[in-house]
Each structure stands twice: as C-alpha cells, then as structure tokens.
Amino acid sequence: MNNKKQQAQALLGLALLGGLIASAGTVQAGGFMTPTANTAGWGRAFGGGSMFKNDPSAAYNNPAAMAFIDKTISQFTLNYANIDIKYKGSAYDYAGNPTSNTVMDPATGELVSSTPRTGNGGQGGFEAWVPTGFMVIPINDRFAFGLSQVVPMGARTTWDEDWKGRDFAVDTRIETVGLTGSLSFKVNDEFSIGGGAILQHTKGFVSQNVDLYAAAAQSPDFGMIPFPAGQGFALMRVKVDNNSLGWFAGMTWKPTAQDTLGLNYHAKIKNKLEGKYNMYADPTSEGLMTIPVVDGKTLVELAYPGLKLYPGGANASTQLDIPANASLDWVHDFSDRLTLGASVTWTQWSSFEALTLKSNGSTIVSIPYKYKNTWMYSFGGDYKLTDDFTVRAGVAFDQTPTRNSTRDPRIPDGDRTFASLGFGYNIRAIPGLSIDGAYSRQFVETVKLKTKNVDRLGAASLDGKSEAKGEVVSLSATYAF
Amino acid sequence: MKSFKTLVCVSSFALCFGAASMASAASITPDGPFTTNSGTLVVKTPSAPGDITCNVTFGGNVSGGVATITSAQLSGNVLCSLPTLKNIPSPGWVLTANTFDPGTQTGTGTVTGVGWTITFPASNCGPGPLNVVWDEATKTLSTTGSQSLSGNCFVRSLNVKAPTLKLQ
User: Fold this and answer.
1) What torsion, rounded to 10 degrees, do the Cα atoms A50, A55, A57, A60 define?
2) From chain B, which residues contact A within 8 Å (Cβ)?
C-alpha cells in the first residue's frame, strides 16, 4: 500500500514536470532574457530569488538552496504573458525622405510614383503561454538532486509587413526551452553548495525587408548612384535553431536562524544557431539577386563583393549567446508570518555585440547592438495570513541592456519596473498539494528608437519612440511528497 | 552687293561655299590603326535612375578618310561594366568627318551605329547616330549637349582625345 502511494506520488510529480516538455513562449525581461522564477517568485517580483523556504525553483536558480529542502517537491508553473509594444514616429530612407512605396518605369528608368508609408507597424507585442517546472529530490542528508524545465531566453516582436520601419524588423521570435539537472551538497547546517547543467534548445525566426535599391545606392562600387529607395520588396526570412549546453552553480549561507543568503552564477552559454534563410521578393528584386550580369555575378554581388543572396533558400547561421549572470539573494524571516527578500542580479550583456547572419561562411549582414551590462534590483516578500494562505508582493527594477544609438524595433527594450502581487494556498484536502497565483505588471520606460540601418540593408533611419507595457499572470501547482 | 555675291556664287558654287562658311568637306587621317587616350562617356539608360559616368578608351582603324571604332573599353564604377556595346567589334562604330574649318581648326562629324544593351534591369539602346565635334588643336572628340538614342537612352556627353588622328 505504501509502495502504491509512493508510486502514485512519483507519477503525480513526474506528470507535473513532464507536462512542461512542450514548446515554450517568452515572458520578456531585459534584452532577450526571461525570468526563470516560479509563481511565488513572480509574486515577490523575484525579491529573494529561490532562498525562500522549500522553493523548488532552486533547482535552476540556485541549486545550493536545494540542500535545505527536506522532502521531494514537484512544481508546475504556467505563465501567461501579454506584452504590448507600439512605435510612434517617423522612418526615413537613406536620402532623408519618408520611407515610401516607390514605382519606377522600367522602360525609362524614371520615377512613376512615390507613396509614403504611413503604418506604424501595429501592435508589435505578443501573448504567450510559458510553462516551467521544477523538481527537487533529497537523496540523503547531504545531497539533493534537482530537475527543471525553464525558459531562460526569449523575445518576440511582430510588426506589419508593410510598415514604415519594415527595413528594420518585421518578425522576431527567439524561443528557448532548457532542461536542467543539478546537485546540491550540504556542507553543514549553515552552508551548502550546488551546481548543475542545462541542455537548451533555442529556436529563432527573424524577418525583415531588405531595400536592395537603397542598398545599391550606398555601394561605392556602384558610384553612389541615387537609386530611389522603397522599390518592390525583398522579405528576408531566417529560421534557425540549436541545442547548447551550459552550467550554473551557487552557494547558500544561513548566518542566522532568520537569514539566508544565496549567491549564484549562470555561465554564458555559447549558442550558434543554424538553419535556413530565404527571400520572398518581387520579380525585379529577385532578378537583382539571381540574374548574372557581368562575369557570372549578380548586381547584388557587384554592389557588395562577396555577398550572395539566394531567394530560394540557403544555409544560415548566427551566434546568439546567452549572457552570463550572477545574483545575490537575501531572505530574512521577521516573524513566523513575515518574510522579506531582496536580490541583485548582474547580467553580462556586453557579450552581445552584434546580430550577425552568415551563410556558407560569408557574412550576409551584421547589425551592431553593443549591449551594456545590466543590474536588476528586486524586493519582495510573503505574509502568512493563515497557516494555509499566504499573500505576496514585490517590486523590481530591471535595467535595459539596449543603447539609444542601436536600439531598434527588433527588441525595443527600455528600463522596466515590475510590480507584483501573489498568493499561496495549501489545499488541505490533498495533503502536500498547494497552489500559487501571481500577477505582475511591467511598466516599461518609453525609449527612443533613433537609429540608422546598415548600408547593405538600405541605410534607412528611424526617429521615433517605443511605448511598451506588459503583464504576466502566473499559476502553479506544487506537490510536496 | 549681296545680290552680286549671290550671282557670283551661283556661277561658281564650290568657291562660294568655301568662302561663305569657311568650312569644307573633311577626312580623317592617317590611314591605319589608332587608339584614343582615356576619356569620359556619360550616358543615361533605363537600368539606372541617374547618369552613369564611365571612363572610355576607343580603338580602331582609319581607312579612306573614315575611322571605324572596333574596340571600346569602359571602366569606372561597377555599372560601367554592365553595358554590352552594339556593333563592337564588328561592324564597328563609324566616325565620318563632315566638315573641317581650317581657321578654327575644328570640325564636325557623325558616329553611326552607337548603341548598347544591359541584361538586367534591361536596357536596349540604339543603335543610332551621334553627332560629334573635333578640336584639332587639342585632338579632342566630343559631343555638344545630350543626344537621345532609341530605347529611352541618352548620351549625355563624350570627351576623348585621339592624339594620332588628324582632321583635314
């Protein structure tokens, strides 16, 4: 009977965790990182990290804290994210004219019409369901084992295909899902260490228009002839993915019976994404890429020596490393009912310098971003209204890694403030089962989008701003065996 | 006085033509191959929105007072490599001298068969005639003003020196 109960419990735990192995969306934070907190963490706006008692999210966020969990805990979290992003402003072609839909007479080479593009791209944000899960299994008094499924990276923006900034971005989707395993070791009752590995699958999809004529006008090899911008269309679509391995480690220290300190480090994960690109283009634009005109070379090759574009598709690769980050967490029990936590997180975003797309070894385009390292400060806590019902709240401030000079509609990120509320409830009818809920509102700084595109994308410029806001609703079910 | 001159002229047409215009039928010498120095050719073609300026060097042969251009090398920016010249090398662009004024050491002429094609974006220009002027003092062959060719094409200007040629 006892065996059957254990089997049922194990089955429930694995079901909670196994239900997560599905495609994951994104819950945006700074850059293209996403918080890996569980529902309780969202409720506290990440304050204190995973240092709260019996928090299974330690399995990924700070494995050392698993050492102080004395029973097997499995948790399934489902986050719903609704991010709203809008662009307001202007877009200009390389000559300084508003970006336009330009029609030329092929018989004469003269301008027929030029109609300015007026669309601001619509709502560039997204809605997503993001599952995460954690499981901690104490092995003995010293060791504990952890499993998790997390979404450490993700970003998404979707703009209208014919909007005025189409030469900068149309679609951007970066989605990851990571499976982790970790181990903790309790050195003594006050100190523990832990470490783990993550196997991460990343999928990326980006699209944008390439203004081939405007790019040709920037070519010194073409004599800087002022080809009118905005002719036709050449929508480049890149779809890539990769599996990558990374590691993380942490330590936990309980200097007093009321205090828990945690330090964790998640190493940079090298992530070379590979796949295909193609270009959906009008016949003339396709001809620029495919019809040999001199010595077997196309006009695109002549304008940018070494650049070959294959509308029908070709290999593509890009490097999108996950930056290293480190957090210092502190949790203090003020009473049996009140516990507060604070965290500081540093992310080495400076490792992301450019988004470079290569094909068969040669660079198609490299867009500079030059991200800067960031800090995130968070503060939150729990208050037990009853033995079974806990309320939570927290605030966090998250710096953006983007710079004014390179920020574009792909990731129009600004500093953001999280304000969160949450609850936890122990369901007495099913001993060990508890549920948590949280609501987190993101107030994102309105930021300038004032940047100029690289020559080979047409050298258009933007002069506007991005207004964004977001909300996350998080629910979790936790089962303690 | 004017009517008297006219009368004399009618009676001696050839003499009067020379006296009134100070120009005469001309020919190009010496017979044999020639090559020009590098000059400039500016054209407008439907393949591109603006004028294309190229360096050009001609080569050919003079025979019977007529110069036949059988080679033309265009250089400069990438667009200068796009045109395929019509009638080059054969039968060639034929430069015929029309007049020569010994007083000013200048003459006029016509280059026939001028034209070119570009594969993509497509242009099909000429062939057609190009009116040119010759400056014997500087040995310069040039055009005056923009001249059109069929296919919505234009030769905006041509300016090239041919040190070995002589107009007389």
Assistant:
1) 70
2) 44-50, 52-53, 76-79, 81-82, 118-123, 152
